[in-house]
Structure formats: C-alpha cells, structure tokens
Design brief:
With about 290 residues, the chain is α/β, with parallel strands linked by helices. Helix content is about 45%, strand content about 10%. The protein has a 5-stranded parallel beta sheet, sandwiched between helices.
Length: about 290
C-alpha cells in the first residue's frame, strides 16, 4: 500500500480487494466512526483484538499491512518501533515442558522497539499449533501476557481452519481473557480469481481474455483449488505468470485477446493443472518481522 495514502485512500484500497468481505466490513465500520482521522474529535477508543479464520494462502500478510496502514492514516492507533505490524508463529509446547515461547515473543517485541521504550502496533499470532490445545496452561499464560499489554498491542490470532467447533473453542478461550471479534475470511471464488488475473497481470501488458478463455480458466482454477497443496494467491500468481510466459515466449503473441485454444495447455484436464494440484509449495513465511 502507498505509504502516502490518507485514511480515505487506505479505505478505498481495502474496498478494491476481492473476497475478504469480513475484513472490508471492519475497515468500513472504523471509517464510519465519528471523527475518524481527527484525533481531537475522536474519543479515546480501545479497539478489540481479532480472530481471523482464513484459508492458507488467503493474503494474511497483505491484509495486516492494509489494516495497520489504515489505523495509522485514520489516527486510530499510535505506532512505535521498526514496523507497524509483525507476524509470529506460536509453536506448541507440551504442558510438562518449559514454556520458551513467552520469552521468545517478548524478545521479538524488544527487538522491534528500536529506539522506543517498547513496541506498539499490531501483532499477528499464528496459532495453528494450538487449535486443539486452547485449554493448555501455556496457552492461557500467553493470553494473560497479551491481555496485560492490550494498551499497546492489537492482537490478531490467525487460524487456518473452517471448522465451526474449532472456531467456537477458540472464541471461548480468547474471549475469556480479552475482547475478541471474529472474522471468517473467505477465499475468492474461481471467477473472481480469474478476473483478478486478467486485471492485475494480463491487461497491464495488453492481453485480455475472450469469454471462452475465461470459462476455461475458471474451470482450471476450481480444479487446482481442490488440491491439498493449493496455496491461494501464490498458486494463482504462478498460473498468471505461466500464461504470460507461454503467450509471449512460446506463441510469440503480441498483446491481444487470448482464446481458449491458445490456453489449451491450461485446461482442466491438462498435465499442467494435474501437476499444480499435486505440487508442494514450501512457505517459510513472508511478511514483516515474521517470528
């Protein structure tokens, strides 16, 4: 996101995202606050913490960046330290082992404080390791720590799950220690993703999709998304790059509308799509200050 965007610009950038309707609603509510962007008119407001239930590859880092930038532009939060947000992987530690994660997290905050006395910003805690262990004393201890620091941290708990029982258990555990708002962040549907590919990757280079080509790619994306290793936007970006490479390097095409015949190698039953379904993508974690 452009660092020079004001609150309205940040709001509009979020509204242009595909999918993530619940995230858009959060920004919309904040934007509608009386006096947002004018600290002298806005009463002191302690924002809630959040539980994000999201599909893997659903753009968490991008949303965090846009969330933090909006809070900064709208003057809803004061930030201190190297970054406005960071991501932290909370590793599971059995109850009978020493809980090293709390010290590691505290060290992360100290390292991000820079010249400030303490870090102040958005902390995204990835808690997949704890989805079945929310009653463990270590997890409760960690929540106590975050609750005690709620005046300087907005905690975003990120869980890659769509299970209603798991989400309910998380809400109960988190809600016992802090104010929590749950966001069910759906991943865009195949037609939305294909439109995204066309608008973000193809059109800037002069290429577009004829209707038969668009229908072919919608079927292909839907098929790829059924793979166990589907990695969301990263997989779709790879698909867009491969289409462009094939069109320019192999077919020697000048900018033009692409037909289904030109994209036959990316059809639902093609070796490309079957390979994409089986591919394993290593993701060490991207984003600012990943823990």
């Amino acid at each position: 996101m452009d660092n020079h965007l004001d609150a309205a610009g940040c709001h509009n950038a979020v509204m242009d995202m595909i999918g993530v309707d619940a995230f858009k609603e959060v920004i919309r509510k904040l934007h509608d606050l009386p006096g947002a962007g004018e600290p002298d008119r806005l009463p002191r407001l302690l924002l809630p913490n959040y539980l994000w239930a999201v599909q893997r590859g659903g753009g968490v880092t991008k949303m965090l960046s846009m969330f933090a930038e909006y809070l900064h532009a709208a003057r809803l939060m004061e930030f201190r330290g190297l970054f406005k947000f960071f991501e932290y992987e909370l590793h599971y530690v059995p109850p009978d082992f020493f809980f090293t994660e709390l010290g590691r997290f505290h060290s992360k905050l100290d390292g991000l404080a820079r010249h400030s006395r303490y870090f102040k910003g958005v902390a995204c805690i990835h808690i997949d390791d704890w989805l079945k262990n929310t009653d463990d004393p270590h997890f409760i201890k960690f929540l106590h720590y975050l609750s005690d620091n709620s005046n300087r941290l907005i905690s975003v708990f990120c869980a890659h799950t769509t299970s209603e029982p798991v989400i309910s258990a998380l809400e109960a555990a988190l809600g016992a220690h802090m104010r929590i708002e749950t966001l069910m962040l759906r991943f865009p549907e195949p037609p939305e993703l294909v439109n995204w590919v066309e608008n973000r990757s193809l059109l800037p280079l002069g290429f577009s999709l004829e209707e038969d080509a668009r229908s072919l790619l919608v079927e292909s994306v839907a098929e790829i998304a059924t793979g166990k290793q589907f990695h969301g936007f990263k997989t779709i970006v790879h698909l867009a790059e491969d289409i462009l490479y094939r069109a320019i390097a192999h077919e020697k095409l000048a900018p033009r509308p692409l037909t289904a015949d030109l994209l036959r190698d990316f059809a639902k039953g093609s070796p490309y799509v079957q390979r994409a379904k089986r591919a394993t993508i290593f993701n060490p974690g991207i984003g600012y200050a990943r823990g």
